[in-house]
Amino acid sequence: MAWGACIAALLLLLLLAAAGGGNGGVHCLEEGSMSRSRRALQGRHYLRSRAVGGATVLELRHHSFSSAPSKSKEEEADALLSSDAARVASLQWRIENYRVIGSSDAAAAAVAASKAQVPVTSGAKLRTLNYVATVGLGGGEATVIVDTASELTWVQCKPCESCHDQQEPLFDPTSSPSYAAVPCNSSSCDALQVATGMSGPAACGSADQPACSYTLSYRDGSYSRGVLARDKLSLAGQAVDGFVFGCGTSNQGAPFGGTSGLMGLGRSQLSLVSQTMDQFGGVFSYCLPLKESDSSGSLVLGDDLSVYRNSTPIVYASMVSDPLQGPFYFLNLTGITVGSQEVDSSGFSAGKVIIDSGTVITSLVPSIYNAVKAEFLSQFAEYPQAPAFSILDTCFNMTGLREVQVPSLKLVFDGGVEVEVDSSGVLYFVSSDSSQVCLAMAALKSEYETSIIGNYQQKNMRVIFDTSGSQVGFAQETCGYI
Ligand SMILES: *[C@@H]1O[C@H](CO)[C@@H](O)[C@H](O)[C@H]1NC(C)=O
Ligand SMILES: *[C@@H]1O[C@H](CO)[C@@H](O)[C@H](O)[C@H]1NC(C)=O
Ligand SMILES: *[C@@H]1O[C@H](CO)[C@@H](O)[C@H](O)[C@H]1NC(C)=O
């Protein structure tokens, strides 16, 4: 009832905002118990897909693998945020690794390359918020995590040395007539070595096993190891013959739990985007649904803009190109606006940030984060502050309040391109009684790290990765399976 009233307030505010060109939104504080629907999601079904016009549309779902569903909301948030911090640390390490490998310092490159082959088992209990889609591979189906920071698609393969639980039957190379191992002396194997920083002989196994082997170590304790292979990939019935992927016989990492593996959508030669250049022109886009609403989003491959349901025109920000960038999508973040106030920070001069589908909370270099935090505190001065929670340190006690006026949050990219974050992506509700409601952004450890725009701030938005035009488009969209 009060929930309904708040929805009405939200609608009213949206109307006012539309009329006034406006700012912010109302966030309702009575979050229902959504754990039931979330658990229901885990009794999974294949996600839908279809081909329409010049595009292939895959249904996207939020994936939250929970081994202990009885956990409290705080415990869940804590596990989520610490695993997100591990992902951010892992990305920082990989960015640095690519930089070193790409540099002319051969000794440093050799050290970095040897590190890249060693899976690091931190023992962290990882579980993360991610988005999954279902594709066809060989004769079967595979539900995979969609990751814009990964260079290679991989699935768990028989015979499994070590595999996590997954919904679908394991991929079995022996039962797929179109399967072939990728030989060591192939250009794909060379590309893999470039992509992962592995040196030649290590990737090529022994003389009696001339297959090209791979190791993807995510540094947060999760990894996938196996051989590079080819098979028929099927996207909504559209076949991609000879698709190169990792056939992983040794895999570890709770973030992958329940899924068959990962779809690499990075900006590198072996990613799905590059391998489907002929079909889809190097363009894909997604709309990430809200976690709570049990709703679907979509991953669209191809550049047919007519299938989108965006409610605002698409604005494009240029990608920053860098030969040493690895699979990452870099943009030039030049400003942030909170409410109508532009935040002032010297940190914007560093420019380069990553936009990532697999990181949850946006992490900013300290100078930018502190400026955003200060502005937020001044605009939220009427609410009592609450203690920090995990990586979130700008928190408020909103117990007893019916609703809260959320200031708008805009990211500004080079060229004056403004992207407004959906109001659901501004605050993170740690506790069910609203006694800890935090700004959903975190500070990185140092100015030398790279800021990352996470998926919490990309919800209800069409985000278009146009690798051919070297630009990323944004538009508001209420996500659904289109
Ligand atoms: C790779 O090695 C095999 C077996 O030694 C050979 O037959 C084939 O021609 C080689 N392919 C390339 C591209 O060098
Ligand atoms: C939050 O505020 C409520 C009501 O003002 C108070 O009773 C409660 O102790 C506060 N909780 C925390 C964690 O500060
Ligand atoms: C980012 O944009 C600013 C402002 O237009 C520009 O001065 C700077 O060179 C850009 N940085 C990069 C890495 O492109």
TrEMBL record:
The active site is at D147, D356. PROSITE patterns: PEPTIDASE_A1. Residues 1-24 form the signal peptide. The keyword Amino-acid biosynthesis does not apply. It comes from the Eukaryota. This is Aspartyl protease family protein. One of its GO terms (molecular function) is aspartic-type endopeptidase activity. PANTHER family: ASPARTYL PROTEASES, PEPTIDASE A1 DOMAIN-CONTAINING PROTEIN. Keywords: Hydrolase, Protease, Signal. GO terms for biological process: proteolysis.
